[in-house]
Design a protein that fits this description.
Bound molecules: zinc ion
CATH architecture of the largest domain: 2-Layer Sandwich
Low-confidence stretches: none
Order of helices and strands: EHEEEEEEEHEEHEEEEE
Number of strands: 15
Shape: elongated
CATH class of the largest domain: Alpha Beta
CATH topology of the largest domain: Threonyl-tRNA Synthetase, Chain A, domain 2
Strand order of the largest sheet: 2-3-7-6-5-8
Distance between the termini: 39 Å
Radius of gyration: 19 Å
Largest sheet: 6 strands, antiparallel, barrel
C-alpha cells in the first residue's frame, strides 16, 4: 500500500521514500508525492532516486488505491529497502492543481446557467483542462457570461476544502461553499490562487460541446 502524501499536502514537491518493490524498470514506494493519472488529472512528472519517471500507474480503483507503480527511464541502481528521493515538477503540479479545481467550478457555473448536463468526458492537463457535455447548441452565446461569473467567483477567494469520506478510506470529497463532488485530485486551498481563467468552446461533434479552460497569465 503506497501512502499518498499528495493528498495530505498537495503543495509538497519533494519527499523521501522507501523502495518496497522493484520489477525491472518498475518500482513501488512506501509513500509518495508523485500523483498517478486518476479522475482525469494527468500524472506528475519528475524523478525517483534521480531517475526520470516515464509513467505512474495507479493500481486499484477510485475508492481504494492500493499502490502506485512507477516506470523509470532505466533499471534503478537502488534496491528494495533503500531510501530514495522523490521529486516532482513543481510548476506543472501548480498548474494541474489550479486547473483541476477550476474545472469543477466551471462545471457548476455551466449547470447553473444551462441546467444539469450530461458530462461525457473531462481531462486535466498542465496547459489546459477540458469538460465535454451532451448539449445540442453551440456554447458561444453563453460562454462569455460564464467566464465572467467564474472569474468573479474565483477572485472572491472561496475556500477549497477536501474532506475524507467517513466510510471509504480512499474516497475524498472536493467541497467549495455548497458544492461537493467526489474527487481524488490535488487542489489549491482557495479559489484566489487560481487567478483568472479563459474559457473556449470547441465543437467535438453533433450534440456535443467542449469547454477548454486555460489559466490567464
Ligand atoms: Zn476532480
Amino acid at each position: 500500500m503506497t501512502q499518498k502524501l499528495f493528498w495530505a499536502d498537495p503543495y509538497q514537491t519533494e519527499c523521501a521514500a522507501t523502495v518496497t518493490e522493484i520489477n525491472g524498470n518498475k518500482v513501488k514506494l512506501n509513500q509518495t508525492i508523485f500523483f498517478a493519472f486518476s479522475g482525469g488529472q494527468e500524472s506528475d512528472q519528475g524523478t525517483i532516486g534521480g531517475i526520470k519517471v516515464l509513467e505512474a500507474v495507479k493500481q486499484g480503483d477510485k475508492e481504494n488505491i492500493i499502490d502506485i507503480e512507477y516506470e523509470l527511464e532505466k533499471e534503478p541502481d537502488f534496491n528494495v529497502g533503500d531510501e530514495v528521493e522523490v521529486k516532482i515538477d513543481e510548476k506543472r503540479r501548480e498548474k494541474l492543481r489550479k486547473l483541476h479545481s477550476a474545472a469543477h467550478i466551471v462545471y457548476y457555473f455551466v449547470i447553473e446557467k444551462l441546467g444539469k448536463l450530461k458530462i461525457i468526458g473531462s481531462h486535466i492537463a498542465a496547459e489546459k483542462a477540458r469538460i465535454d457535455f451532451v448539449y445540442d447548441k453551440p456554447l458561444n452565446d453563453v460562454l462569455p457570461d460564464i467566464q465572467e461569473r467564474v472569474n468573479k467567483f474565483l477572485l472572491e477567494n472561496h475556500a477549497l476544502i477536501i474532506r475524507d469520506d467517513e466510510q471509504k478510506p480512499d474516497l475524498r470529497w472536493w467541497t467549495c461553499e455548497e458544492w461537493k463532488m467526489p474527487c481524488g485530485g490535488t487542489h489549491p486551498k482557495s479559489t484566489g490562487e487560481i487567478g483568472n481563467l479563459e474559457l473556449q468552446r470547441k465543437n467535438i461533434g453533433s450534440g456535443k460541446e467542449r469547454i477548454e479552460i486555460r489559466l490567464a497569465s
